Each structure stands twice: as C-alpha cells, then as structure tokens.
Amino acid sequence: MEKFQQIAAQFLSIPVADIDVAVIEVGLINATYLITNRNTSQNCILQKINTTVFKDVSALVHNTSSAVAVLQQSDYPLEVSSVIATKEGAPIFYDEDGNPWRMFTYIENSITLSKATSPIIAFEAAKAFSKFYKTMNSNGYVIQLQVVLPDFINFEKRITDYKSALETATEERKLNAESAIQFINEHIGLPDKWIELQTNNQLPKRIIHADPKISNVLFHQDTNEAIAVIDLDTVMEGTLLYDFGDMIRSYTNTANEDEISTNETFDPELFMATKKGFLFSLETVLEPVEKENLDYAAKVVVYIQAVRFLTDYLNGDTYFYISYENQNLYRTVNQINLLKGILAFC
C-alpha cells in the first residue's frame, strides 16, 4: 500500500506514515480507496481514473467540478462530496506511469447498498436522485458540460453495434447465446419509439446523472435515509427517461446482475416505490411526453442493457470487466429475465 500512501500524500499535508489505505470494492470503472489519517481518524476518498473509459480527463474534471459547484451553491438538501486539490492546487495528480488520481471528501456515517432491499430503500434512493435532478436543472443555474462518453445513450448506435457483433462473432459464441439472440431479435423494434422521439427532438434535454444505480446513493448507516448522490463522472445532457429506466433496472431486479434465476426476478412493489421517489421533486417539472413514457423507458433501457452485454459477449468480452467465462452472457440473460417481468407488469 506504500504506493497509494505516497499518492495520497500529494493531496494531504500529513506524513506518509500517518496514512492508512483500504480498498473500496464498490464500482466497476475507477479504482477507489479509503484514505484515513491515523492521528485524527479523518477519512477521504482516493481514486484512480480509468482512462480507457474516460479518455478526456480534463473534460471529466470540468464536468465533476461544475456539478459539485451547482450543488454546493444551491439549496440542494443532500450532502456533497467535494473535490480535494493537490498541495499544489491541481485537481489531478499524475503518477510516474501517467495515471490520473484525484481525491474527494468522505461523507461520514454513510453506507452503500448493492440492492434495493425494500420498497422504502428504493423510494429513498429514487427520491435522492429526484432532488439531484431538480437542482441540476433549476433555471437559476447554467452549467456547460463537455462530452466525456460520446453516444452513451444513443440507442440507434447500440443496435447497430449489436448487429455488427452478430456478423463477426464466432460460431461458438453465437451458439452459446442462441436463446438470448432469439429474444433480442424478436424485440429488436422495442427501441424504435425511443429513437424516433430523440431524432425528432421531442424529449426535453436535461442534465442527468446517467448512472443512477443504487450503489451511487449513500445512506445513513443508522437510519437508512438517503443522504447523498455520488459518482458524478457521467453527468451529461440527455433525457431523464434514461435515468428513470436505469433506476428500474437497478432497483427492481431481485437477482444479482450475473445471476440466472428460473424464479421471477422483477419486483413490482420496488417498481412503484422507485417511480414514486423519482416523481418526488419532479412531478411539476416533467413535461407530459416524459410522464407518458416512464413505463416505456423502463422497458427499453433494460432491453438496451441486455443488448450491450450481449454485444460485448459476441465481441469477445472487450468492454465490461468479467471475472469468469460467460459472465457477460449470464448478465444478458439476467436482463432478459428482468425485462420479461416488466413487460408482463406494464
């Protein structure tokens, strides 16, 4: 851990020997560590930015700093994890290998959850994001974001990429994924309405989080009240329908993301609690076209995630991290099972 102590010392005015380092396992993109001052027990977050995903580090820093500034300057009711500059005043430290590192304040008495264990938890998480969206889209604040993830919610491109992968995949992988491919192909028209709405600019453009999974909400360790929205790296201009759909994908799945279950994996109570929380601060903000398409967004976002996992599997697992063979295929089947439950519900 000495290397991480040395890096943390670039941000903190304390001796290296007084720095404790612990790995934080949550998160699939950036490497994250809990830094603790042994003398004061004060904590902070150290993170190595994944430049394979975030190629433009300066744009990432700009967006994160801009979002934090809006939240801190407003009447935003939740806690905010602030950027800690290096001792030279820079937002990023580059190590000897050119890897970019940054540091954030740690929100004390907080925990993260990997699943929505009850309707109350789903409601609390969605309500926290609802407050986040309302603040970020307030008329009193102007935020100019740079593009860090091009075509992230371009569903037309996702379908095109899938079709290309299908053409170039090995026969073995296509045979393994035969039933998944059949389901995806049978529902290939599901995103058509979404693509048409976006092409015709019928969906209001708003600031979205773009990764509103349950683990990006901090809960108070004693009360389970949502106290913060974190991981602002993906903040971008888009449609709030995407974030709602991804909430449903994250909060209503009772199985782990790579678990293939023969049982029902969709929980309608969690769906309704998530929708109620999402509308908590947005009921009077959303336009009719947004409210009318919430249920549809849930279906199409889950479908597109299944497409993305299947595309990566067919391409030989080049994007999503896998820890064992066929994990992306299992993730695909998991999303398909979830989608079947949603399609039967609404």
Automatic annotation (TrEMBL):
The organism's place on the tree of life at top rank: Bacteria
Residue stretches making up the Aminoglycoside phosphotransferase domain: 21-255
Protein name: Aminoglycoside phosphotransferase domain-containing protein
